[in-house]
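ARCHIVE CARD
Drawer: 12
Card no.: 0347
Subject: one protein chain, sequence and derived structure
Cross-reference: see card 0346
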Amino acid sequence: MAAEHFEARGAKIEQARYLRWRPWLLISIAMVLVGGVSAIASAYRDVLDVGEIARRVDWLVVGVLGLVAATSFLSGIFGMVGGMILIGALVLLLDLTTAMLLITAVLLATNVWRLATWSKHACWPVIGVVTCGGLIAFAALRYTGFVPTKGWVLVILGAPPLLINLIPASLWPSIDRLAGQAGCGLVAGVAQVMGGSGAAITEIFFQKSRLSRVEIVATKAGLNVPLQLLRGAYFGLATYTASGTIECSLPLWVFGAAIAVGIAATTAGGYVLKHWFSDRGFLAWNWRFSNVSSVFFVTHGVWLLTI
């Protein structure tokens, strides 16, 4: 009887936390929609009669900043999942070089901020080993000289969460062990350097970890910093090698604005994680966001490769 009472009480607490958190979820979804609509308006603003005031607004910039705000908020709660959605959205909206540079700037800044905020919760030995694995992946891919197109980036971005579901979690080593840390660095490093995201790959290594949800997010932020640097370096070097210069289709002030918006939204997401989220709810919503976005990105990537 006592066990049933506490179980029912726990369910009510979980429901109350979800109801308190739901408005933030709706706000983040609305911001993603605003970003997408703004980008579409930017593409068709010469055709549509949007009025004199609207013509003065760079709707693409508005869309980019809206997407950064929404996905950074999600990243503050779930770690790398928000970054995965941001990568896919920016790759669809911008040219590949600009998208990779902006993604690197925003995700690097937000992860550094989150790591600085929660540095005492991060597991630094894990971060060190994962970084070494990422460096090995970077060197190997740089040697091959392969540079993915937009279609390949979207497939590499979305495929890991779907493929990982086919492999039993018991076969993956835990991030608590050295083998898990090295494997995470190598596999996630390849995905990250190729323009995708190591979110789903990293998640599977953390599934059996004894770390708390706050320690998990802090450690992910720490290992994501060097991986982001490697991604930016890879695409920057590839572009410079091919053309002798690095061109960007967005003004530099957008990078600064995106970083500021990303840090603010990540901070808000961290507050939601710490006060309104349970461990069980954290894992459930993380899985939903990851798999739904993966299906979309893989489908669109395959379509780009076939046209």
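Annotation on reverse: Confidence is low (pLDDT under 50) at residues 1-19, 37-57. The two ends are 62 Å apart (CA to CA).
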